[in-house]
Structures are given as structure tokens and as C-alpha cells.
Design goal:
Elements: H1 2-13, H2 16-39, H3 46-53, H4 59-77, H5 80-86, H6 90-126, H7 135-163, H8 166-187, H9 196-204, H10 215-239
Helix pairs in contact: 1-6, 2-4, 2-6, 4-6, 4-7, 4-8, 6-7, 6-10, 7-8, 7-9, 7-10, 9-10
Length: 242
């Protein structure tokens, strides 16, 4: 399995898509952080600061798209046939892609969190009357955002492998996050904490809402979603002609 994951990581780091999305994710996070610090003179409360530091979690949205593109990319480009000739076991093939995307997403999340810390924490400390979180709280927020980015990429890879169509999978992900999640949250009490949006916020620590799941529980629920999608992708792939 290690060799399969290494092969998938090689594919990941030698494609322009990965570097473009990684750069876009980190750049977007830094842009939001800098603009917020520059323009928001009312950044005073601990909640406001916590929300700012959790901005790194936005990278999870782009790593989710990255995972979808990677998971469905081999079907689009026709390289899945050679992959399955080397690795006939579909679950191992899908699992290697999911793990590689997890590691790639983790790298992007750590980069976004680290650069946010380097810029935001000194800037906040220089502001008067700003409540700066403790080192432990800040590290927890940044690591939670990195975990979210990693798990988002893994789930995206599983979904991409299941649907095989990059455009359809990306559209479905966007509809789920921006349409289905808020609609379900408004209509069904208590379900919002189990949606992709609710789980992402819980992991990235951007909200003190008591209705959200604890970070660890949210990560486990997201992981279960990923395992389910990856298993379905392996089963469906085994029944399809490649």
C-alpha cells in the first residue's frame, strides 16, 4: 500500500492542477487575513479574533475541489486503465488516491495555517485592546483547519472516484455546501452539525456555537463519510468497464 500511495503522491506533485489549487488556497486565505486586519478597526472580541484565525480553514473548500479533480481525473484522461492493471484491487487503488489527497490537503492546510499565524498573531499583538488567544488555543485552531483541509481533500477524492465526472462532481460539491447544507440546517433542527459545512466549521474552530459537534467527533463523522464514499467508489468501479 505504501508504494501505491507514493505513486499517487508522485502524480499529485507533478501536476499543475495541484500547485495551482494549492497556491490559490493559500493566497485566498492570506488575502482575507490581510484585508481583515487592515480594514477592520473593530477587531476586539475573542470571538472576532478566533474567527479571523480560523480563516485558514477556507483552504478546505479548495482542497475539497482538489480531491474531486484528482479522484475523477484518471477517468477523464483515461489513465485509470493502466493504474488498475498494476493494482487490480479496486479498493486499494481508490484508497491510495484518497490517502494521497489527504496528505496533499494536510500540506496545504499546514501552509495556510502557518502563514496565517506568521502574519496575524504579530499584527494582532500590535493592536491595542485586542484579545489575543493563548498559544495553545491558536495551535488548536490552526491544526483543526489543517485537519479539515486534509479530510476535505480525501472526501473529494472518494466522491470523484465514485462519480468519475469532474464537472458533475464539482457542481454537486458546490450545491451541497452552498444550497443543500443551509437548507437542511434551516428546515431540520439539529442536522446542521452533521452537514459538510457544520463539520468543517467545527473542525476549523471558527465558531463557538454550542450546537456544533466537538472537533474530534466532527473529524470522525467526516472520516466515516469518506470511508463510505471510498467503499462505494471501489464497488462501483469494480462493476464498470474501464
Amino acid at each position: 500500500m505504501t508504494r501505491l500511495v507514493n505513486a499517487e503522491l508522485l502524480k499529485l506533485r507533478t501536476t499543475r492542477t495541484f500547485w495551482w489549487l494549492a497556491g490559490s488556497a493559500v493566497g485566498l486565505v492570506l488575502l482575507i487575513v490581510v484585508l481583515t486586519l487592515w480594514l477592520d478597526d473593530q477587531l476586539r472580541s475573542a470571538t472576532d479574533v478566533r474567527s479571523l484565525l480560523s480563516t485558514a480553514g477556507i483552504a478546505g473548500l479548495l482542497t475539497l475541489v482538489l480531491g474531486v479533480v484528482v479522484g475523477a481525473g484518471e477517468y477523464r484522461h483515461g489513465t485509470i486503465a493502466s493504474t488498475l492493471l498494476v493494482t487490480p484491487q479496486r479498493l486499494r487503488a481508490v484508497g491510495a488516491t484518497v490517502i494521497a489527497c489527504f496528505l496533499g490537503g494536510l500540506l496545504i492546510g499546514l501552509m495556510a495555517g502557518g502563514l496565517t499565524a506568521l502574519i496575524a498573531l504579530p499584527w494582532l499583538s500590535a493592536k491595542e485592546a485586542v484579545v489575543v488567544p493563548s498559544t495553545g488555543d491558536a495551535v488548536e485552531i490552526f491544526l483543526g483547519g489543517a485537519l479539515y483541509a486534509a479530510l476535505a481533500a480525501a472526501l473529494g477524492a472518494a466522491l470523484g472516484g465514485l462519480l468519475r465526472n469532474q464537472v458533475a462532481a464539482v457542481v454537486i460539491v458546490l450545491v451541497l455546501i452552498f444550497v443543500v447544507d443551509p437548507t437542511l440546517g434551516a428546515l431540520v433542527e439539529g442536522i446542521g452539525q452533521f452537514t459538510l459545512t457544520g463539520l468543517g466549521i467545527a473542525m476549523s474552530g471558527g465558531d463557538d456555537d454550542t450546537d456544533l459537534l466537538p472537533r474530534g467527533v466532527a473529524a470522525v463523522v467526516w472520516l466515516l463519510y469518506t470511508v463510505l464514499l471510498a467503499t462505494l467508489a471501489a464497488i462501483v468501479t469494480a462493476r464498470r468497464d474501464i
